[in-house]
């Protein structure tokens, strides 16, 4: 469905300035922005990322990954086509890169009105809606309309995002968004430019602003051998996160070759374990290893070492947090948890 976009203004000569994401594209008549979704139609910015989804699945919230936001719950996970990055190792490239020049074309989409999505989430017993798989900023207007309805129904809203929003969008999102997992892919601006076609600082600013706005955040770094797996870079990422808040969970995930990037082998487990040690040294309280089932998945009290949430893959085996605290030493646990007593 094509409709007028938000977050833009008119310029001379029929051009428009889009300020949905940090690219801040200046779009000439008849052209699209970097995302390939928002088009200047005779001086008006239009979006075709509304009312049609390319994916809708029920996922464990742990798959986002979010380990400190309603653990053990399910989330209706939705996507529209498009992305404002061009990551050469994207694992969802068939839908994220479908709107770009030279792509094989749009994936098969299906109509899904915001009210129908929220109704599906309720009927299926989900506690939240997640805007994920592609970059949700690109279908922001669609996500926001779903999100506002979801909040009315006391359902949570989650972004799984590359963190390239503008401050204007983040201020708007604070009125309906509850949680976000942000990909902090590298801590080197040149690598961001080369691999993603983006810059580092806007992502860092998004993380700072999300935290200051009270939106729960967790960070994921896909550790790619030869790109961001040095102790120096992983240590800088950990230090930055800890500088925002030591209670922000950091997910260090195993890479495997995908899309057009095949220059690196899968990440050795030893590198992920070392990243975890570096995170602990930086003062982070919660570091998780991703894409390695059975390792580094449990939530542990940083004060006394009690296992608070035991996991296997995306499944919660036991949950012991009581009213946001460790049941043994009563230390607060960072996150958003259901009220009540432990279940095991």
Structure description:
The chain folds into three domains: 3-47, no CATH class; 52-293, TIM Barrel (Alpha-Beta Barrel), CATH 3.20.20; 298-344, no CATH class. The protein is globular and about 65 Å long. The chain has an eight-stranded mixed β-sheet with strand order 8-9-11-12-13-14-15-16. A three-stranded antiparallel β-sheet has the order 1-6-5, with no helix packed on it. Strands 2-3-4 form a three-stranded antiparallel β-sheet, with no helix packed on it. It has eight helices and 19 strands. A hairpin with a 5-residue loop joins strand 2 and strand 3. With 344 residues, it is an alpha/beta fold. The mean pLDDT is 93. The chain has helices at residues 93-96, 114-123, 140-152, 167-173, 189-196, 200-212, 231-244, 269-282; strands spanning 3-4, 8-10, 16-18, 26-27, 38-41, 44-47, 52-53, 55-60, 74-79, 110-111, 128-131, 156-161, 179-183, 216-223, 250-254, 287-290, 299-300, 307-312, 315-319. It starts with a strand and ends in a 25-residue tail after the last strand.
């Amino acid at each position: 469905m094509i409709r007028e976009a938000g977050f833009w203004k008119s310029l001379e000569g029929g051009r428009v300035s889009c300020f949905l994401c940090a690219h801040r594209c200046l779009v000439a008549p008849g052209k699209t922005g970097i995302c390939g979704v928002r088009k200047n139609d005779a001086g008006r910015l239009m979006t075709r990322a509304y009312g049609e989804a390319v994916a809708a699945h029920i996922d464990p919230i742990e798959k986002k990954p979010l380990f400190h936001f309603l653990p053990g719950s399910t989330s209706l996970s939705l996507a529209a086509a498009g992305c404002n990055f061009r990551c050469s190792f994207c694992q969802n490239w068939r839908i994220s890169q479908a709107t770009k020049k030279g792509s094989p074309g749009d994936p098969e989409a299906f109509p899904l009105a915001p009210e129908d999505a929220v109704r599906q989430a309720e009927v299926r017993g989900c506690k939240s809606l997640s805007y994920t798989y592609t970059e949700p900023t690109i279908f922001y207007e669609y996500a926001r309309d779903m999100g506002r309805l979801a909040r009315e129904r006391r359902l949570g809203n989650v972004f799984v995002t590359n963190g390239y929003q503008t401050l204007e969008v983040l201020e708007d999102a604070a009125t309906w968004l509850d949680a976000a997992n942000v990909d902090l892919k590298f801590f080197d601006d040149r690598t961001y430019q080369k691999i993603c076609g983006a810059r580092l600082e806007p992502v860092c600013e998004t993380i700072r602003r999300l935290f200051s706005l009270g939106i729960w955040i967790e960070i994921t770094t896909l550790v790619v051998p030869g790109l961001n797996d040095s102790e120096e870079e992983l240590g800088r990422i950990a230090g930055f996160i800890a500088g925002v808040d030591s209670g922000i969970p950091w997910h260090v995930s195993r890479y495997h070759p995908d899309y057009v990037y095949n220059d690196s082998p899968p990440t050795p487990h030893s590198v992920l374990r070392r990243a975890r040690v570096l995170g602990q040294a930086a003062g982070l309280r919660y570091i998780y290893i991703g894409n390695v089932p059975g390792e580094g998945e449990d939530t542990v009290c940083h004060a006394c070492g009690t296992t608070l949430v035991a996991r296997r893959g995306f499944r919660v085996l036991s949950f012991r947090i009581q009213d946001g605290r460790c049941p043994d030493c009563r230390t607060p646990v960072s996150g958003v948890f259901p009220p009540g007593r432990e279940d095991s």
